[in-house]
Design a protein that fits this description.
Blueprint lengths: L1 E6 L14 E2 L2 E2 H12 L4 E5 L3 H9 L19 H14 L6 E5 L8 H12 L5 E7 L8 E3 L5 E3 L16 E11 H6 L8 E5 L11 H18 L1
Parallel strand pairs: 1-4, 1-5, 6-10
Antiparallel strand pairs: 2-3, 5-9, 6-9, 7-8
Helix pairs in contact: 1-4
Length: about 230
């Protein structure tokens, strides 16, 4: 079976109750749930949470919450892979064999059903462990600068000071939306950022980390603008 697993613990610090805070008219997590359901990729769309209110909201928007996530997997230091592994092993223990699982973040309102389907196609059309969303940096990372303790500026790669931007290799980063993976890869804790993964490239205007109040405001502006253009 194929499952979508949306991790959504209750202890968000920087934006309290971020996973269910209203975003453009719906709880944030609802956008991810609805995209997963529209994709028609999954036998089940589940939310892994330790929080009863999040569980109730998730159920209202069509996800299932077949278990409550244990406390040892719900602190600030727990990574994504152990949470996905726990969900896969829970299903296997119920006699339901998971073949592919997609980790879909609860705070990814720009995720689309079409991109989720593309991710599945990439995974199934290759021998890779994972296929996940990426986007390009807007500026060449080879020309990045840091601010020193003395308040001065220095380049990370000073050898590229005179290199033209168009001559530098394009770089990409994790888009933070979804991660398709084979069940064995999740269970064995194989690295996602490796040569055993393949990219699903997204345009930069549909990628926004939402970690601060400023991020949230910017994301709502972008989202409303995109909705307005689509009408």
């Amino acid at each position: 079976m194929k499952i979508a697993i949306i991790p959504a613990r209750g202890g968000s610090k920087r934006i309290p109750r971020k996973n269910i805070k209203p975003f453009c008219g719906k709880p944030m997590i609802a956008w991810s749930i609805e995209a997963a359901l529209r994709s028609a990729c999954f036998d089940q769309v589940i939310v892994s949470t330790d929080d009863t209110e999040i569980a109730e909201v998730a159920s209202q928007f069509g996800a299932t919450v077949p278990f409550m996530r244990p406390a040892e997997l719900s602190d600030d230091h727990t990574g994504t892979i152990p949470v996905i592994r726990h969900a896969i092993e829970w299903f296997n223990a119920q006699g339901k064999t998971v073949e592919q699982a997609c980790c879909l973040y609860a705070t990814a309102p720009f995720v689309s059903a079409e991109d989720i389907r593309r991710g599945l196609d990439v995974l199934q059309g290759s021998d890779c462990d994972y296929a996940f969303s990426v986007t390009s940096y807007a500026f060449p990372i080879q020309r990045a600068i840091r601010i020193t303790e003395q308040g001065r500026v220095e380049m990370f790669n000073p050898e590229h000071f005179n290199t033209r931007s168009q001559d530098l290799e394009e770089a990409f980063h994790d888009a933070g939306q979804f991660y398709w993976g084979r069940a064995a890869a999740w269970r064995e804790g194989r690295m996602i950022f490796s040569s055993s993964s393949m990219p699903v490239i997204l345009p930069r205007h549909r990628v926004q980390d939402i970690d601060t109040a400023e991020d949230w405001v910017r994301a709502e502006w972008m989202f409303k603008a995109m909705q307005s253009q689509a009408q």
